[in-house]
Amino acid sequence: MSTNLDDDDTPPELVDVSVMPSDQPGPIEEESTLRVPITLVTGYLGAGKTTLLNYILTEEHGKKIAVIMNEFGDSSDIEKPLTVNQGGQEVTEWMEVANGCICCSVKDTGVMALESLMERRGTFDYILLETTGLADPGNIAPVFWMDEGLGSSIYLDGIVTLVDAKNILHLLDEPAPEEQAGSHSEDHDHGSGPVLSMAHMQVSHADVIILNKVDLVTPEELEAVRDRISAINGVAKIHVTDHSRTPQIEGVVLDLHAYDHLDDLDFSKKGHSHIDPAISTIAVVTPPIPAERVPQVDSWLQSVLWESTLPAPADSSPDTHPTNFEIHRLKGILRLEDGSSRIIQAVRDVFEIRDSEPTQTDDDKPSPVQCKIVLIGRGLGPTVDPWRNSFESFVRGR
Ligand SMILES: Nc1nc2c(ncn2[C@@H]2O[C@H](COP(=O)(O)OP(=O)(O)OP(=O)(O)O)[C@@H](O)[C@H]2O)c(=O)[nH]1
Ligand SMILES: [Zn+2]
Description:
Layout: E1 13-17, H1 30-34, E2 36-43, H2 49-58, E3 65-69, E4 79-86, E5 89-96, H3 102-105, H4 109-118, E6 126-130, H5 137-140, H6 143-146, H7 148-153, E7 154-164, H8 168-172, H9 177-181, H10 198-204, E8 208-212, H11 219-232, E9 237-240, E10 279-286, H12 294-306, E11 326-335, E12 341-347, E13 350-355, E14 371-378, H13 385-396
């Protein structure tokens, strides 16, 4: 398959950009000194991913960034060179790309390419990875949690999804391209129900959405797109751009800390909406839980994420209890009665519960005292009540 949008058909390119070091070093967090952050840049074919990366490479941001541009999405070549430019030296490696599919290739040979990149760590302090336009980030993100070796040297900072404001609405209403193409759809079984396009997957997994090509739409069209996007993913931060020129880079593409802490998630704009028939966002908010009940949270997540089964409280009504749902993304913060917190992160069926890392930037804000779990997925139902009741009764055992 080829596309006329793909006119920048260069091999995957890894560019190391040395910029003058910032004279204002930011707060040093233990994690960032030990592990290198990676941001995944996703978005449908032609949405503006490469434009964004080129923009970042030319802006001053005080960081040395290794950029992996994946332009092999539409070719089925077996091998593509991965070029690393470092201080005038060019090193070329060969990266096998089965089926031209980054979501599959990152799992095997791509992991090796990243590992060998990490042997040169110290020469860069940030990695940006552009996925192909047809990649489902839900398959990529867990690699950084699952792979022991990689997980010890790289951490996922966030997922940025470029959205083509001109084309996104019809993409959201189209059948999934992988199913049209008949390619490994068994890997990406999204169950029954309303049709989910790849655009849905990319929007639903995003921590940041860059609503690009604003020059090609009217203000009314832009608002319609924004409404639809926030109905699918109610927690991602949305930035509107022309030629992917984000207002700033830090906090928009770099240093998202999307998986470190969740205190600043904006739950207020959540609102349960049915603008998009396929995917929606809900937020379960409950009082703090006893520390000894954390294993029950783990079991509840296993049921919800692995079995797509919402544990039913004794008094639940079968009419309103969601039965045919699928969670794509889940983030949460558990407040325990002993005053400590736990972070929950899930992409599809891979999840973790871990201690909350204290953040220096949030010291001035009072800590939220409620547990909050945000779920993004299909078939979540008309209200949050069955979810909150299930969580409450299962976790507290009453
Ligand atoms: N009019 C307009 N064109 C844009 C904008 N952003 C990017 N483009 C153009 O859209 C085309 C595709 O942009 P790319 O950055 O290559 O998109 P991509 O997401 O990397 O594309 P693939 O790698 O093929 O998936 C290029 O011709 C860009 O110049 C924008 O805001 N407005
Ligand atoms: Zn795949």
